[in-house]
Design a protein that fits this description.
By secondary structure, the protein is mainly α. It has one domain: MFS general substrate transporter like domains (Growth Hormone, Chain: A), CATH 1.20.1250.20. It is built from nine helices and two strands; from the N terminus they run H-H-E-E-H-H-H-H-H-H-H. A two-stranded antiparallel sheet has the order 1-2. A hairpin with a 5-residue loop joins strand 1 and strand 2. It is globular and about 55 Å long. The termini are far apart. This is Major facilitator superfamily (MFS) profile domain-containing protein. It holds the Pfam family MFS_1. Keywords: Membrane, Transmembrane, Transmembrane helix.
Length: about 230
């Protein structure tokens, strides 16, 4: 009997919370929960686009003649467009890729607890904002910081780790947003729409990132990602 009454209380409390959010005023005749779902999906999309940025940089570090970022004079006094020559091996680049996902895994469970204590939207937005700020630092840590003692490599690894910690908060927070903003009858549709951003991100990121890297230099993809996020904000 006690379990039943507790279940009814939780169900009633959740129902009241959902009704509270779903009955909020609309913006341009669009319910706020729909706007929140669109922005959350777009945030997940951009966060996964950022994950493709360094993958594109990887290929251009290993094949520097395909980049247009830095001009170096060759022996015939002709200008060849290439990246800054880095002594990073494919194994070291693999470490830089994997350290992002190490941070991604480590932050999942703490983020889930934080969502229960604080606003899910705040847990989603603030780490995402830091993620994009760190994305602006990537071209600096890769090519501007001195390569003596591989300082640029270790700084890039640190930035990648923190980026992973920030990106790992997005998925648990999106669950909280679905629970708090979507009434039970709409959670399936809203959840499917929100999480579609996770899978659209790599498609958009590699497609547009490849075009930008070819015509504007591969560092432009980092700035473009931040520009898109600022438009969303």
């Amino acid at each position: 009997m006690r379990i039943s009454s507790s279940s009814e209380f939780l169900s009633k409390d959740m129902k009241e919370s959902n009704e509270k959010h779903s009955n909020k005023s609309s913006v341009f005749s669009i319910p706020k929960r729909v706007i929140v779902a669109i922005l959350t999906s777009f945030g997940l999309l951009i966060s996964t686009v950022i994950q493709t940025n360094f993958a594109i940089t990887n290929s251009l570090i290993l094949n520097p003649l395909n980049s247009k970022d830095i001009s170096i004079d060759d022996d015939n006094d002709q200008t060849t467009n290439t990246t800054l020559k880095l002594s990073w091996t494919s194994v070291e680049l693999g470490y830089l890729n994997s350290i992002f996902y190490l941070g991604y895994i480590l932050s999942h469970m703490p983020a889930g607890f934080l969502v229960h204590q604080y606003s899910a939207i705040k847990i989603f937005l603030f780490p995402l904002l830091l993620l994009f700020i760190l994305n602006l630092l990537m071209p600096i840590t890769i090519s501007t910081i001195t390569s003596a003692f591989k300082i640029n490599y270790y700084l890039t690894a640190l930035v990648r780790l923190i980026q992973g910690l920030c990106a790992g908060c997005a998925f648990p927070a999106s669950h909280g947003i679905v629970a708090n903003w979507c009434p039970p009858s709409e959670r399936g549709r809203m959840g499917g729409f929100i999480y579609s951003g996770l899978y659209a991100g790599p498609v958009v990121g590699f497609f547009l990132g490849g075009i930008l890297a070819k015509y504007s230099g591969h560092y432009s993809i980092y700035y473009a990602s931040v520009l898109i996020f600022s438009l969303e904000s």
